[in-house]
Design a protein that fits this description.
This protein is 74% helix and 0% strand. It is mainly α. It has one domain. The two termini are 25 Å apart. The model has no long low-confidence stretch (mean pLDDT 89).
């Protein structure tokens, strides 16, 4: 893998992990469309993947550091009584939303990804992801609940929606934002909560894969390349988050529609191309 390829993958990871367009779906589909010789399932590629996810997680942690600082200090009781109560409430919501994805990933991740990681199937699910975004936008109603009004049941439903992202082509951020909208939560708050619960999920996936690095064979210079790619992925993720938080705040009535049309067009176009190839 060349540096140009590594940087291209890093930018793709940093953007699609946060945009509601499925990073995993693109990672499965694009190599087949581009006839890439990179074997993403190889042992040598694992350190690169782990570093990319670490860069993305660090970017999210840095972007929302104030949230995590308030949550952390509140949970351990180093704040005002009101802030302690609110921080512990938000922390509980994040835990509730994280548990379903952790359970499903530990029990069924290999089976799900093994069944659906074929490029043609992933392209079909990417088109389905587009429909989910468009239908979710249409069915969301007129609810305008803020982040402070999220209840445990809302967090659980959003957490269950997050499990769909184990299927290549279904977006984690897209499914969780749609779930929030259907619960009457506005776009900005749905995105904010989606990005908050993404942080432990991505960090958890990184830690889960880290022990395998002890047995992985790395070519000379591979760690340096992976580190550079992680920095690029993190910067892209930070910029993506910055853009999306402002975008969702300013486009309450139709925010998911452009991503829905993109996924529908790219998914159907990729399906046709792969089917005819």
């Amino acid at each position: 893998m060349t540096y140009i390829q590594a940087l291209a993958i890093a930018i793709l990871q940093g953007a699609t992990e946060l945009f509601p367009v499925s990073s995993l779906g693109h990672a499965v589909i694009l190599p087949s469309l581009l006839k890439s010789s990179i074997d993403q399932a190889s042992e040598a590629f694992l350190p690169f993947v782990v570093m990319l996810h670490l860069g993305t997680a660090v970017a999210l942690l840095q972007f929302f550091w104030r949230d995590w600082w308030l949550i952390g200090t509140g949970v351990i009781g180093l704040s005002t009584p009101h802030q302690i109560k609110e921080s512990r409430r938000v922390f509980l919501l994040i835990v509730i939303a994280t548990i379903p994805a952790v359970i499903v990933a530990l029990l069924f991740e290999k089976m799900i990804r093994g069944l659906f990681a074929a490029p043609l199937i992933a392209a079909g699910f990417l088109a389905l992801n587009g429909l989910i975004l468009l239908v979710g936008e249409r069915l969301r109603g007129t609810g305008d609940r803020p982040l402070t009004d999220i209840k445990p049941l809302d967090a659980f439903i959003i957490g269950c929606a997050q499990c769909l992202a184990l299927i290549p082509g279904i977006s984690r951020s897209g499914s969780t934002i749609v779930a929030g909208l259907l619960r009457g939560i506005n776009h900005e708050s749905s995105a904010h909560f989606s990005f908050l619960i993404a942080t432990p999920i991505i960090f958890g996936a990184t830690v889960h894969q880290a022990p395998k690095l002890l047995h992985a064979t790395m070519a000379p210079g591979a760690f340096t390349m992976a580190t550079v790619a992680a920095i690029v992925s993190g910067l892209t993720a930070w910029l993506s988050t910055w853009f999306l938080m402002r975008y969702f705040r300013s486009n309450e009535n139709w925010a998911l529609n452009p991503f829905g049309y993109y996924c529908l067009a790219f998914g159907l176009g990729s399906s046709l191309w792969l089917w005819l190839a």
